[in-house]
Specification:
CATH class of the largest domain: Alpha Beta
Number of domains: 2
Strand content: 25-35%
Number of helices: 8
CATH superfamily of the largest domain: Vaccinia Virus protein VP39
Number of strands: 11
Structural class: alpha/beta
Shape: globular
Largest sheet: 7 strands, mixed
Bound molecules: S-adenosylmethionine
Strand order of the largest sheet: 3-2-1-4-5-11-10
Distance between the termini: 26 Å
Length: 252
C-alpha cells in the first residue's frame, strides 16, 4: 500500500464522524483500557472517536494514523475539549515510537486495509515490538458472511441509512459493496447526501481485504502472540464462523 491507496481518508476526514457514527464498541475499549493499568496505543485512531473518550476519562493513551487530515480533525476536537493528545502520523505497517504499551487496540476493521500477508505480518510485528511483556493486542475485524462472498465485483447496494447530525442536519448514507474472490478485495462505495445543501454531497471509495478467522490466528501465532482468543462482537462470547464482528485478543 502506498500513501495514495488510503488517500480516501484525506478527503473523508471532515465528514468521517457522520459516516462512522457507531457507538457499539466504545464501552468495551474503555473497560479494557482501564483494566490495562498502563499506557494504551490506538492504532489508526482516525478523528479520535475512541482516543478522545480515553483522554476525557484520564486514561494514558496515544494514537497513530497515516492520515494527516484525520489527525488534524482529531486535534480540532481535542482543542474544544481542552485536551492535548499525543498523536503521531505513522503507518501501522512499520512504526517506531520508542515506547512500549500495556494495551494496543486496532478498532473498526482498520487492519483490513492491509492487502497481503507481508503487510499484515509487518504490522503485527510492529504491534508486538511496542507491547510490554504480557501486554495485550485487541484487533477488531469483519468476518464476511457467505452473502458477502457471493457478491460480484461491481458494487451493489448493501445498506441505506437516514440520519441526523449532532448539529441537526438530515442526511442520507448509501453503502455499496462488491467483492473480488481472486484478490479477497471488498470494494466499498459510500454515498453521502444532505437534505439542506446538496452541494456538500460526496462519494468515497475504499478497499478492505477480507481474511478467514484461521488465517488471522495463524498470523498472530507466527508473530509470537500467545493466549489468542476471538470473541463474537464486544461481549466476550466466543466467536465462530457465524460471527460477523470479531474481536481478537492476544498477548505478548
Ligand atoms: C475506519 S477508520 C477507523 C478510525 C478510528 N479508529 C475509529 O474507530 O473511528 C480507519 C483509519 O485507518 C487509517 N489507516 C488506514 N491505513 C493505515 C495505515 N497503513 N497506517 C495507519 N493508519 C491507517 C485511516 O487513515 C483511518 O483513519
Amino acid at each position: 500500500m502506498d500513501a495514495q491507496e488510503n488517500a480516501v481518508y484525506e478527503r473523508m476526514a471532515k465528514v468521517y464522524d457522520l459516516i462512522y457514527n457507531d457507538d457499539l464498541d466504545t464501552g468495551f475499549y474503555l473497560a479494557e483500557a482501564k483494566n490495562a493499568r498502563g499506557p494504551v496505543l490506538e492504532v489508526a485512531c482516525g478523528t479520535g472517536r475512541i482516543l478522545l473518550r480515553f483522554l476525557t476519562k484520564g486514561i494514558d493513551a496515544e494514537g497513530i494514523d497515516s492520515s494527516g487530515a484525520m489527525l488534524s480533525e482529531l486535534r480540532k476536537k481535542a482543542k474544544t475539549l481542552s485536551l492535548e493528545p499525543h498523536i503521531h502520523k505513522a503507518d501501522m505497517r512499520r512504526f517506531s515510537l520508542g515506547k512500549r504499551y500495556k494495551l494496543i487496540i486496532v478498532p473498526y476493521r482498520s487492519f483490513l486495509h492491509l492487502k497481503d500477508d507481508d503487510e499484515r505480518m509487518s504490522a503485527l510485528r510492529s504491534f508486538f515490538d511496542h507491547l510490554q511483556d504480557s501486554g495485550r493486542l485487541i484487533l477488531h475485524i469483519y468476518n464476511p458472511s457467505p452473502d458477502d462472498l457471493e457478491r460480484g465485483a461491481s458494487p451493489s447496494l448493501l445498506e441505506s441509512e437516514d440520519l441526523v447530525s449532532d448539529d441537526g442536519r438530515d442526511y442520507h448514507l448509501d453503502w455499496f459493496m462488491g467483492y473480488d474472490r481472486k484478490t479477497s478485495r471488498a470494494h466499498y462505495r459510500i454515498s453521502l447526501s444532505f437534505e439542506d445543501r446538496p452541494e456538500d454531497d460526496a462519494v468515497f471509495e475504499m478497499d478492505l481485504y477480507f481474511l478467514r478467522l484461521k488465517d488471522i490466528e495463524r498470523l498472530l501465532e507466527r508473530c509470537g502472540f500467545r493466549n489468542i482468543r476471538s470473541y463474537n462482537g464486544f461481549g466476550y462470547e466466543k466467536a465462530d464462523e457465524n460471527s460477523r464482528e470479531v474481536v481478537w485478543v492476544a498477548e505478548r
